[in-house]
Amino acid sequence: MFKTIRTITNKIRCYRDANVYIYQMGKVGSTSLEESIDGAVHMHTLYGNSECYVRKKQIDSDKNWLYRLFRKLFEFVIRCVIRSKEKVKIISIVRLSTDRNVSMFFQRLPYWYCDYLNNNNDGKISRASGSQIIYNSFNIAFDHEYALNWLDEELSRFTGIDFYTSIFPVEQGYELYDKDNFSVLLIRMDKIDECYSKGVISTFLGQDFEMKRSNESEGKWYSEVLNKFIAEYEFPADLMDRLLTSKLSTHFYKQAEIEKNRMKWSK
Question: How far is CA 140 from CA 45, 112, 252, in A?
Fold first, then answer.
């Protein structure tokens, strides 16, 4: 028990003493920033919104109501600890949800794959190819709405900033938002290197740092399957439209960039 209390206390202290929070939806190239910036804390949710609801459901099924209540209480404490600081610096990153969702799907592939098999046992699966089952798992089981709603359900909810009310400088690829004690640097994933080389991130942090590279997909166990998926998979038209006509896509990307991405996933 004392070990658990000490672990929780250390976590709270880590959030309290952080210089900057890398607060984003996952699979947007943020790990390199976290490992490069001293005193950075990396987080996906402050409200219990899991990027893989199947995994969360499995974990919760093994825990009692007290554990779930404690988790909500811990998240509440962390929100209070961060909000109580005189100045809160947050870096967040957006990415086109087609590309992001493919990356996140493979990050948690066993969960989505098993969820699809468990909920679609209609006799057709045994006749489908291995690739088709993976495609179906992505199309049907994967949570495609998570990325589309993340800004509203997490970052806006926490900071009180509506990131869609002002025009985003698409060519620049980043914008700074300030409200009360919050200062948020929002960057497009494809502009991270440019922001780093121009000193945008260092200026925001008030400190120099050297960018480290990590979490590259080539080093993952699923890299071969992922490369095959990217080469052969074609998004269903309705799913593609839902993702690429979303406010997330149209607010942060030019129409030409969206159409280029559409062509990428149209085989």
Answer: 24, 9, 26
HSE-CB of 160 using CA atoms within 13 angstroms: 9
Alpha-carbon distance values, 91 to 15, 59, 110, 150, 157 (Å): 15, 29, 30, 14, 15
Cα first-last separation, the chain: 55
Residue 15 · residue 82 · CB < 8 Å: yes
For residue 242, what pLDDT is reported?
Answer: 98
Cβ count within 10 A of residue 194:
14
- Cβ contact 155:163 at 8 Å: yes
Task: Identify the segments of the chain with pLDDT beneath 50.
Answer: 1-2
The pLDDT of residue 213 is: 74
Q: CA 77 to CA 81: how far, in whole Å?
A: 6
The H-assigned helical ranges of the chain are 2-17, 31-36, 53-61, 65-83, 97-107, 109-119, 130-136, 145-150, 157-159, 192-197, 200-205, 223-232, 237-244, 247-252, 255-264
- The two tokens of residue 37 are 């910036």
CA angle 63, 69, 72 (to 5 degrees): 115
Nearest Cα to Cα of residue 243 among 142, 111, 116:
142
